UniProtKB/TrEMBL annotation, chain A:
Record key words, sorted: Amino-acid transport, ATP-binding, Nucleotide-binding, Transport
CDD domains per record: ABC_TM1139_LivF_branched
Family label: Belongs to the ABC transporter superfamily.
GO MF entries: ATP binding
Entry superkingdom: Bacteria
Lineage, highest ranks first: Bacteria, Bacillati, Actinomycetota, Actinomycetes, Micrococcales
Entry protein name: ABC transporter ATP-binding protein
TrEMBL record, chain B:
Segments crossing the lipid bilayer: 36-58, 65-85, 97-122, 134-155, 193-211, 239-260, 266-287, 294-312, 318-337
UniProt keyword terms in alphabetical order: Amino-acid transport, Cell inner membrane, Cell membrane, Membrane, Transmembrane, Transmembrane helix, Transport
Listed Pfam families: BPD_transp_2
Homology family: Belongs to the binding-protein-dependent transport system permease family. LivHM subfamily.
Annotated protein name in UniProt: Branched-chain amino acid ABC transporter permease
Subcellular location: Cell membrane
Main location: membrane
Length: 239, 345
């Protein structure tokens, strides 16, 4: 049984359908990528999964349950956690406070459990440990992305949604972020990734879906798509 | 217009001349009195600021939330067996504090309940429909009238004319002002001490709640970025309700403190002027900013009293509102200028 399943999902802004009848699945333990050009409906899809955009049609299933009508904040408790596009770091909160926002709905049995959760994030992103008292708004772009991912991990996600984590980052930082995503996935967290950086994303994904103007145009294992001439032409800048 | 006239208790005291000497001679006395009013403004201003922070809404019905608190504490005192008589009660210090505490709790419950009820009945349906912000503003003003007229016309029928109606309630006086000490020639009364101490404690507690608790973080998160807050598992609706509750509870506390200072101010229209002044205080300090509410409240309190000394008693409200206009014209973000969202721990 897939962990996440979208069945014929349509999302509209007014009369414009940004996503048109998408169906996709993410199995437990997978790293799945959505790639596509600007305006293809990637972020809209992520917002629909998190419950921030209502569906016009279709349904979303998580762990065998229909969550189409579940409230957004309850989906976090259910295990669907997103690091949103643009990172969504709370600028006026410290790094520590931002991380604690990730654990907002989570009840820690003891302070040790809380510190343990923080420790795991700091092990993954030592830079955050160094800056934990600093305001989120004063971090660099790469550090903010680390914070956004670390914060999402604080919620102990069963499905981690990452919306364009490489956006606006320096090449070296992109490498590091992708490496960390692979690590998180290898440690057992299912990941659904939205990316424009198709090369990196496809090479690290188990499977990928390509979105074009709100519809799934192609799907398959990441490596296969990487070798597909049409994909190469459209998304990898290879003539 | 009638609301303006009926709210004159705010202006009731001080027969001071029309010159600089009056200000110089009474400077410290004016400061003490100004800080007393300012502390009350600050408590009410916190309600405007918190709601603005999470909803970007000026809840103009907040003055009526305050007014309900005045009736709430008054009704509580009546339930405790006190009756409005010409004389002041003398119950001893300890018992008086207990009674005032219970009355304050009564005011807080009524105001808190009114604020939450207002949110559910008036604002939430608009939010669900995605109404434009002008609709919220007009609804706020409408709700303000509904709440006033409820106390004006309906409350007397429900309470056998004991509460509400066209006239102010006969005061129930538990504390008679008596000078406790003199400070730079200004006498400080027990009532002034109670008001300033209580307001500071409540403001400090509120600040701690916002800065140091999980729900406080939730409020700040919604103020900074409501969508991301939702993605963190924060229920925006619950945070909005909590915000109205806190603002209402503080207004209820302020209501009791205000009636200590102005015992004959308990009337259906009695929240109007005070509400606008508290709003002025919030804007002066920087709306959306908790510390701004405190600073703006205290500042407005003393400045309007200085103005009153300079220009005459009847100019007191004018001073306050000219100040509002000046702030809006020249520094619309207020003195501290930051929003609740950016207020740092």
């Amino acid at each position: 049984m897939p962990l996440l399943e979208l069945r014929d999902v349509t999302v509209a802004y007014g009369r414009i359908e940004a996503v048109r009848g998408i169906s996709l699945t993410v199995d437990p333990g997978e790293l799945v990528t959505l790639i596509g050009a600007n305006g293809a409906g990637k972020t809209t899809t992520m917002r629909a999964i998190s419950g921030i955009r209502p569906l016009a049609r279709g349904s979303i299933w998580f762990d065998g349950r229909d969550i189409t009508r579940m409230k957004a904040h309850d989906r976090v408790l259910a295990g669907i956690v997103q690091a949103p596009e643009g990172r969504g770091v709370f600028p006026g909160m410290t790094v520590l406070e931002n991380l604690d926002m990730g654990a907002y709905g989570r009840k820690f049995d003891s302070k040790a459990e809380h510190d343990d959760a923080l420790g795991r994030v700091f092990a993954l992103f030592p830079r955050l440990d160094e800056r934990k008292k600093q305001a989120g708004g004063t971090l660099s772009g790469g550090e903010q992305q680390m914070l956004a991912i670390g914060r999402a991990l604080m919620a102990r996600p069963r499905l981690l949604l990452l919306d364009e984590p490489s956006m606006g980052l320096a090449p070296q930082m992109i490498q590091q972020i992708f490496r960390t995503i692979s690590e998180i996935n290898a440690a057992g967290t299912t990941v659904l990734l939205v990316e424009q950086n198709a090369q990196q994303a496809l090479s690290r994904s188990d499977r990928a879906y390509i979105l074009e103007t709100g519809e799934v145009s192609t799907s398959g294992p990441g490596k296969e798509l990487l070798a597909d001439p049409a994909v190469k032409r459209a998304y990898l800048g290879v003539a | 217009m009638s609301a303006l006239l009926l709210a004159t208790p705010v202006l009731a005291d001080g027969v001071i001349g029309f010159n600089v000497d009056a200000l110089a001679h009474n400077f410290w006395a004016l400061t003490v009195d100004g800080l007393t009013y300012g502390a009350i403004y600050a408590l009410v201003a916190t309600g405007y600021t918190l709601v603005y922070g999470v909803l970007r809404l000026i809840n103009f019905a907040h003055s009526e939330v305050f007014m309900f608190g005045m009736f709430g504490q008054y009704a509580t005192l009546m339930l405790l067996g006190f009756a409005p008589s010409g004389n002041a009660y003398s119950e001893g210090t300890l018992l008086t504090i207990v009674y005032l505490g219970i009355a304050m709790l009564g005011g807080m419950i009524v105001s808190g309940g009114t604020a939450v009820g207002l949110e559910r009945v008036a604002y939430r349906p608009l939010r669900k429909r995605g109404a434009p912000s002008l609709a919220f503003l007009i609804t706020a003003i409408g709700a303000s009238f509904v709440l006033q007229e409820f106390v004006h016309f309906i409350l007397p029928k429900l309470t056998n004319n004991e509460l509400g109606g066209a006239n102010a309630q006969q005061p129930i006086v538990l504390v008679v002002p008596s000078v406790q000490f003199t400070f730079l020639g200004a006498s400080v009364t027990n009532i002034e001490l109670i008001i300033v101490a209580a307001a500071l404690i409540l403001t400090f507690a509120t600040n701690q709640f916002i800065v140091a608790t999980k729900f406080g973080r939730g409020i700040r998160a919604v103020a900074q970025d409501p969508v991301t807050a939702t993605l963190m598992g924060v229920s925006r609706e619950r945070i909005i309700m909590l915000t109205f509750l806190i603002g209402g509870v503080l207004a209820g506390a302020a209501a009791l403190l205000y009636t200590l200072r102005v015992p004959n101010g308990i009337i259906y229209s009695g929240g109007f002027i005070l509400g606008i002044k508290a709003f002025t205080a919030a804007v002066l300090g920087g709306i959306g900013n908790l510390r701004g509410a405190l600073l703006g409240g205290l500042l407005l309190g003393v400045m309007e009293l200085y103005g009153q000394a300079l220009f005459g008693t009847e100019w007191r409200d004018v001073v306050a509102f000219v100040l509002l206009i000046l702030v809006l014209m020249f520094r619309p973000t207020g003195i501290l200028g930051e929003s609740l969202g950016r207020a740092r721990a």
